[in-house]
């Protein structure tokens, strides 16, 4: 099934009452959502509802394509952020080289919806998970797959499995270089190089490249981060050169991959300098959060990246994901209770940011005054604190809408099986599915 | 469709590769999962995997049934915790009076899977959400539904909608009494009583009872909590008596509802004393977390409840929900990286609790020594810190399994579309679905 046919099947499926956000009392064909012409500002939908602004998505897709072209790098966006086939499709249609994923289950879902080139930015260890991936590679010679490895134990497991499955082709692996005190990955250049030799020599495996994740270096001190990221990118490049000097790479191209959603400019500029190896180098960024950005953690980091890139405000990545909910109760003068909770919006980095209020029927949403903030969330409720003495405390009423931005798209996407795409005036255009 | 037929449909559905936890490379009929005889301890499943211990579920179902019978109260367990039709079914089969839910979407899902008596423990405000519920009531005279209200604005919306939909029966409402500084609900007895009069007089509505949620009173000081809960339960009872004295209730029974998962014994004993009203009182508890309990926040509270009830250790509610994952990397002597993250286990109250380690093939899991703890989670990874100098630091290897308990079941269930049920030896018996 190619991408288009898989998408068609999603468009044709019947959505049953109870899908969050949908105002339906009968099953509805997903592809007919746009024709209903629901307006969020008229409170036509159910609430809470998760919204993707189509214009911001489009802008971000093109922005990232331009960025990668400018630096001469490829993009395998991290699909774990959205786990949405329609968004994967849009990313691939806008020049992405492949998709990055985190688990074998995610790989199986992406494959089902037409993704044919995957970088698993993780170790592959469980027998069932190794088998899941090798089965896809065995069944479909066009399916291109890469995984990470950081230990001899990992190499041994994968080599043994590849031999047992009698694979026609070798399993391509990238050696992961890690960071002291951080997540996975070899803790020294020497260990990483030794492991690269093991991979190159192991039956059923082949060394495809070198990988690292500089996103773990985001700390409280930006200057220190930048220095550490530059150093790490240099290490990755040096490791690649050393492995190449030992002729450990046998494939047509050598992969060099890093790049989260905070410092991918440092990665891109560092990788662009890796030249004159025995074969072409393919630098691959893996940012996942560029697609929707956010109104919190990543937006702050992206504004700094914009400044480094010399961009004016508004020219950079735009927040595309919002969660709207209704005021259910106004029990105290400075408190509004919203029908949105931990089941609906991220709370791991920051609580949602209340952006606008809107009375259905009014001409347009109004920015909320300073001092309005979500101070707490329960499973299904948010506590919106209003500034004492400000007119909003008297005005905001039961039935009004609150539009919120979020911080960290990954932990909002995973709360919604369906997100609605909207125009700039919050008219519903369609929907995208997620599979978590 | 009755409950049994709806469950059958879930058993007959094909699960596709990519459903978290399932070790499949071909679609599999859900009802055939048990026949595969997967063993978690043999690492047959995919990892991470969410597990429900069948014996603990069974124990908890019976324990709660006995508790309610002893106190003469009914149970409408909060379905938002699990959102699992099979678990709803088990709760109803074990004496639950109905299900509590939090949103109109959840009501639609429960109805689809055969639930015919729902207490919406929330305000019902959005036009689409009001319509969703009234449509179910209109279509099915056997569908019994109750919602909360805490404002005149709420009463006006519901009365208007009920009249516009030309309902054959009135919409039964419970007036919500709230707590200063907390969530929804009237902030004084006088306000609540005035609102009860409004409901009783509003076309299309009827006053069904009085409701509150004492679970918001869980604070750092237990004695203070207990005093506050007792006071609140007395207030609810007094409010009910006053509304009854004014002859505001016209239905056969008067509902009196409260009861989270921490202090439901205080609620039950307080409610049992409400007698000699104009008509029978139906006391309804709403605990959601009793079904699986946990290894963290709720387990601590339940151990205190056990002590109040005079139960020996092991006689109370048992933790039924675990998340198992594999060691993907051992990058440093005291650090193991697990393939389980924010996508897989609760992190809102406490991080998961690492309980046991197990090498596939070994005879049985071994309790982890003191000092082993999950110190951080990313989206797809956990950082398990091992005690320096202890043998476990040398022993724990890539490919070993770690079994974790969680804190707060609601925020683990919502990360799993399918959870596997297991025997005490971690053999997979079957699965339950969730709909978030």
UniProtKB/TrEMBL annotation, chains A, B:
Coiled-coil features, chain-numbered ranges: none
Keywords: Lyase
SMART domains per the UniProt record, alphabetical: D-ser_dehydrat (SM01119)
Sequence ranges assigned to domain D-serine dehydratase-like in this UniProt record: 320-423
GO molecular function list: D-serine ammonia-lyase activity
Enzyme Commission number(s) of this protein: 4.3.1.18
Pfam families: Ala_racemase_N (PF01168), D-ser_dehydrat (PF14031)
EC main group: lyase
Superkingdom in the source lineage: Bacteria
Keyword match Nucleotide-binding: no
Protein's name in the database: Amino acid deaminase
Organism: Duganella violaceipulchra
Taxonomic placement: Bacteria, Pseudomonadati, Pseudomonadota, Betaproteobacteria, Burkholderiales
């Amino acid at each position: 099934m190619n991408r288009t046919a898989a998408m068609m099947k999603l468009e044709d499926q019947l959505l049953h009452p109870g899908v969050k956000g949908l105002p339906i009392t009968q099953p509805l064909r997903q592809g007919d959502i746009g024709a209903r012409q629901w307006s969020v500002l008229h409170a036509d939908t159910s609430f809470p509802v998760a919204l993707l602004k189509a214009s911001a998505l489009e802008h971000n897709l093109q922005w990232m394509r331009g960025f990668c072209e400018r630096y001469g790098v490829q993009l395998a966006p991290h699909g774990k952020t959205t786990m949405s086939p329609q968004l994967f499709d849009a990313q691939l249609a806008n020049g992405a080289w492949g998709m990055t994923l985190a688990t074998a289950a995610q790989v199986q879902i992406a494959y089902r919806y037409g993704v044919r080139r995957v970088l698993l930015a993780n170790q592959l260890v469980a027998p069932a998970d190794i088998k899941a991936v090798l089965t896809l590679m065995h069944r479909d010679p066009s399916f291109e797959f890469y995984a990470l490895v950081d230990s001899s134990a990992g190499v041994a497991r994968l080599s043994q499995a590849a031999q047992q499955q009698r694979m026609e082709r070798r399993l391509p692996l990238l050696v992961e270089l890690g960071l002291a005190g951080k997540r996975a990955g070899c803790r020294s250049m020497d260990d990483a190089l030794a492991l690269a030799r093991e991979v190159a020599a192991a039956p059923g495996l082949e060394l495809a490249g070198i990988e690292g994740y500089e996103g773990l270096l985001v700390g409280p001190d930006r200057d220190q981060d930048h220095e550490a990221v530059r150093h790490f990118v240099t290490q990755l490049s040096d490791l690649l050169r050393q492995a190449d000097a030992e002729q450990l790479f046998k494939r047509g191209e050598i992969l060099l991959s890093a790049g989260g959603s905070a410092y991918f400019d440092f990665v891109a500029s560092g990788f662009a300098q890796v030249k004159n190896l025995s074969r072409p180098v393919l630098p691959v960024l893996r940012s996942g959060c560029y697609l929707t950005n956010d109104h919190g953690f990543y937006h702050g980091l992206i504004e700094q990246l914009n400044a480094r890139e010399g961009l004016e405000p508004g020219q950079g990545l735009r927040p595309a994901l919002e969660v709207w909910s209704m005021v259910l109760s106004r029990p105290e003068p400075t408190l509004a209770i919203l029908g949105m909770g931990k089941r609906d919006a991220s709370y791991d980095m920051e609580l949602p940011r209340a952006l606008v209020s809107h009375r259905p029927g009014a001409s347009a949403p109004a920015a909320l005054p300073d001092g309005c903030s979500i101070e707490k969330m329960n499973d299904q409720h948010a506590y919106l604190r209003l500034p004492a003495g400000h007119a909003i405390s008297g005005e905001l009423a039961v039935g009004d809408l609150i539009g919120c931005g979020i911080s960290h798209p990954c932990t909002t996407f995973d709360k919604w099986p369906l997100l609605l795409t909207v125009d700039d005036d919050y008219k519903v255009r369609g929907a995208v599915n997620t599979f978590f």
